[in-house]
Design goal:
Residues 30-49 are annotated as: Disordered. By secondary structure, the chain is mostly beta strands. The protein has helices spanning 70-80, 130-135, 215-221, 267-274, 325-334, 377-380, 406-409, 443-449, and strands at 51-61, 90-100, 105-112, 118-120, 148-157, 162-174, 179-193, 198-201, 229-233, 242-246, 248-250, 259-262, 284-293, 301-302, 310-314, 321-323, 338-340, 345-348, 361-366, 371-376, 382-383, 388-389, 392-394, 402-404, 412-417, 422-427, 436-438. It is 13% helix and 34% strand. It is globular and about 60 Å long.
Amino acid sequence: MWFGVLHAVVFPVLCLAATLADLVLPDSVDATSGQARPPRPTSTPRPGNYIKASVRKEQVVITNNVTSNGTTATALARRWGRLPLSLYEGGIVYLMDVNLGSPSQTIQVVVDTASFELYVNPDCARAANPSFCSSAGRYEAMDSGTSENLTTRFGVSFGSGGYAGTYFCDTLSLGDDYWPIVHQQFGVANASAYVWAGMIGLGYGEGYNTHYPTMLDRLVEDGYISQRVFSVGLGGEGSGNSDIIFGGVDYHKFEGWMEPVEIWPSPTEQMEQFGQVGLTTRYWVNLTSLGHTRPGQQATEQLTANGFTQMMLIDTGSTFSYMDSDIVAALAEQFNATLDDEQDVYYVSCSYLSGDDSTGYMHFGFNQGDIVIDVKYEDFVIDLGGRCALGVQPADEGAATWVLGDTFIRGAYIVFDQYYDAVWLANYRPCGEEAVADLGKDPGEQLWNEIYGGC
């Protein structure tokens, strides 16, 4: 999709997180293994300080095929392996509300774990969907009594399009209770191309990708939450409400223990290895298997060999997942997919969205099988309004990394943990009313020993 920041500013690392090896575990237990976990807790986790923000799924149709400079857009798309959604005629995005200014102005922004800043006010005349863009809201600095123009310019590029503008500071609030952050820095665009909404980046901020505290940093600094940790539950079709919980986890949206998957390379190593070539510190993990189970069958058919490992970017801002063309071709054959040679996109029958054909599963494995995320076909195939696309599309040859987008995330409950530099995974299994546990000063110890999912 168009969300994936390619321009990065390198700053020294200012804060050090714990590592998975620091977790207090039973003797001889590997921190990256799901084996030998403690017995299921008998007590109920106590609620505490957390901020819940509702998330909405939106189907976006491309109505205005405007992109940035052709050479730049093509080069950036090739580098990241994510093609403009104009090739697919549309896509799915997940939006949340932020409130800016005094009095507050509500803006809808796309949730993006692959970037790290808040941007608002795209140019709707040059948006891929001008109508959607106009309905998402705009920030008017002159209407706010607490606005400050920092006069510092910014420019950011994505796989197709991007923003350019000026940094401002103003009061920001979010979540169901509208918790305020005073004097928060964010980017206000006065020029953009292709992008049809603002975006809120939830990646690593100050000390890694920015020289100022981002929204996630400020939630900790202002004492709203204890650590830079948040959980994402997008869910599949008919699986309940989607949300993000900053500083907490809803243990009625998954079953059993969560499995920690190390961010690799570590954020510090990412800075050292990739900082000079424009890649930013992100949630990269190693995928160790990919398979699927056909509708009505029990046996899993593996698409990867033993010992397989591949670095993947977990990206809520990407409608599709992207992998090596050979793996995608093998999967496409199993779905009887048709390759559109002009678009280089695999299309499949829309029968996979409902009925008997929708009961198959995709299987994404991590930690050599200690956790496998199962995604229903109906959540894996993307409905483009009468035409349906395979949930994994081929990354361009030479792409810097592969992507686990929404066609993976809909099957998972995920905790993004900047304290332990880990992503905690479980299968998305809603089982009742919301039950949120606070994640305190040592979120990893709680997730490993205390918080057990289920009703």
